[in-house]
Write a structure and sequence with these properties.
This protein is an all-alpha fold and 335 residues long. Helix content is 81%, strand content 0%. Helix 2 packs antiparallel against helix 3. The longest helix is centred in the first third of the chain and has 42 residues.
């Protein structure tokens, strides 16, 4: 009889453990599913949907690692929303929560990677960005994740000073060679590298036929890919148009307007939209058409005011550009 009672109790305990284990597995599966949706939404800059998914992910996160992952995504969402101070805060906290032996090195690499992005694209601090990218690179190498190693090389190339052509060329070439050998898998990454290579060639040799062919190849690869973000295509047209405008204002303006039309498909307030307006204003200023220049520079300011805090240096630059235009047009009181 005692043996029967013991077996019955063991069976009850076993069933209980099975329910706990099943619930735990289901919880982990639910977290992974929602996180996958969130990553896709962030990749495609569906930010409102990403915010909703992030709220769901936060509610179902249990472990410290899951909470660290939530903080990481909050950092990425704030980066994509141009809230750079908040992005730094969330990503730094994520790194603290995830700094444990069981955390996959790839995940730690992603946090460091985005810390680098915030420093470079949010605060224009190349040295700080390179420090984070170096750590990200170590983690990606440890994880054996070659695509992210190559993406980190590309971001490192962007982060060196424009005067440091040798280092920019070294790291971009490493990324370019990797993506060129796998063009079918990574056409958009290859396009980014070719755009950066075109800018480097232009800086060294001017807008040569080779530089133009690199820009055109980047545009061609991007337009042919269904994953392409309109902003990416707009950026390439913007770069090519601005450089052409130094020699052929009419062609330059045509390309800049084409870039602007691509950017406006995505949003009416974005860094690259503001950049397009600024570049168009610069071309008109070079042509001494100050009224048109002022019109576009004010649109650039309005766009920047929607995405940056009032004390961000991009807002300061926009006001300086407007003041310069007033001075050039002898409207000193308005300046």
């Amino acid at each position: 009889q005692w043996g029967f009672i013991v077996m019955r109790r063991l069976l009850i305990i076993g069933v209980g453990l099975l329910f706990v284990t099943t619930a735990s597995v289901n919880g982990q599966s639910q977290f992974s599913d929602v996180e996958f949706e969130l990553r896709e939404a962030l990749k495609e800059r569906r930010l409102r949907q990403a915010e909703n998914l992030l709220g769901r992910l936060q509610k179902i996160s249990k472990s410290k690692q899951e909470q660290g992952i939530v903080l990481y995504h909050q950092g990425v969402l704030n980066f994509e929303s141009y809230h750079f101070i908040e992005a730094i805060d969330y990503l730094t906290r994520a790194l603290l929560d995830l700094d444990q032996p069981r955390t996959p090195p790839h995940l730690l690499g992603m946090v460091c990677f985005y810390l680098g992005r915030v420093q470079k694209d949010g605060f224009y601090d190349g040295p700080a960005a390179l420090s984070h990218y170096a750590k990200a690179l170590d983690y990606f190498l440890k994880a054996g994740n070659e695509p992210w190693v190559a993406r980190t090389y590309f971001q490192m190339a962007r982060s060196f000073a424009l005067s440091d052509l040798e280092q920019r060329d070294y790291y971009n070439t490493k990324a370019l060679n990797y993506f060129k050998a796998r063009q079918e898998l990574y056409p958009l990454e290859l396009a980014e590298c070719q755009n950066l290579e075109a800018l480097r060639v232009n800086q060294r040799d001017g807008l040569t036929p080779y530089a133009i062919s690199l820009f055109n190849k980047a545009i061609e690869l991007s337009l042919a890919n269904p994953r392409t973000n309109s902003r990416v295509v707009g950026k390439y047209y913007d770069n090519l148009g601005y450089l052409h405008s130094k020699h052929d204002a009419k062609l330059g303006l045509s390309l800049l307007r084409k870039g602007l039309s691509h950017n406006l498909k995505l949003s009416h307030h974005d860094y690259w939209i503001a950049s397009s307006y600024t570049n168009i204003a610069t071309v008109f200023a070079d042509l001494k058409n100050y009224d048109s220049a002022l019109y576009y520079q004010r649109k650039a300011l309005k766009s920047k005011q929607q995405i940056y805090s009032t004390d961000h240096q991009e807002i300061m630059f926009a006001h300086i550009h407007i003041a310069d235009l007033f001075e050039a047009n002898n409207q000193f009181d308005s300046a």
